[in-house]
Amino acid sequence: MKISQDVVQRLVRRDETAFNETYYAYVRLIHYLVYTLVKDHAEAEDVVQEAFVKMYENVGGLADPARFQAWFVRLAENLAFDHLRRRKADPAADAARLDEDVADRRIGFAPAKFDFNGMLEPFENHVLNLHLVHRMTFREIAGETGRTMSVVTKAYYGAVATLKKQYRKGAL
């Protein structure tokens, strides 16, 4: 899935072919990461599009081309978190999204991920899904998210502790 440093250098020079190679190499990963955070297909598409535009605009500032994937994943995550903060400010949009979720469940739509209805921080939920659903190791998650192993491990075990507390309270 990683692209070569040559492709990154061509991106810096605004090579359209390099952008296309990068898009096809990363669109599925970036979409998955964003969707697991925003939980809405249409909004995820918007954030993914924004992530590719921002990547193309800012790749020239990347100090180490070997760290492109971690940098790009982090960029996409940050855009998704920004989107979530903006969404929190609009309760009417949340109500509409809830109606769509209920309709999706009635027709049998079930994304292959865990969702704990806001019991976890978005990054904790993301790490939990990558580890349990996609069977990624903490090292792989750290590489994909651009975070350190200790941050990933802390997020995972923090999520587990939160879920245990919620289970004991009867919330799960």
Would you give an account of this structure?
- The chain has 172 residues and is mostly helical.
- The protein folds into 2 domains: 1-111, Orthogonal Bundle (Rna Polymerase Sigma Factor, Chain: A), CATH 1.10.1740; 112-172, Arc Repressor Mutant, subunit A (Orthogonal Bundle), CATH 1.10.10.
- The chain is 73% helix and 0% strand.
- The protein contains 8 helices and no strands.
- The chain has helices spanning 5-12, 16-38, 41-58, 68-88, 91-106, 122-132, 138-145, 149-169.
- Helix 2 (16-38) packs across helix 3 (41-58).
- The longest helix is centred in the N-terminal third of the chain and has 23 residues, at 16-38.
- The protein is elongated.
- The protein starts with a helix and ends with a helix.
Number of helices: 8
What is the residue-mean pLDDT, rounded to a whole number?
81
CATH superfamily of the largest domain: RNA polymerase sigma factor, region 2, helix turn helix motif
Number of domains: 2
Secondary-structure element series: HHHHHHHH
State which percent range the strand residues make up. Answer: under 5%
Helix and strand arrangement:
Blueprint: H1 5-12, H2 16-38, H3 41-58, H4 68-88, H5 91-106, H6 122-132, H7 138-145, H8 149-169
Helix pairs in contact: 1-2, 2-3, 2-4, 3-4, 6-8, 7-8
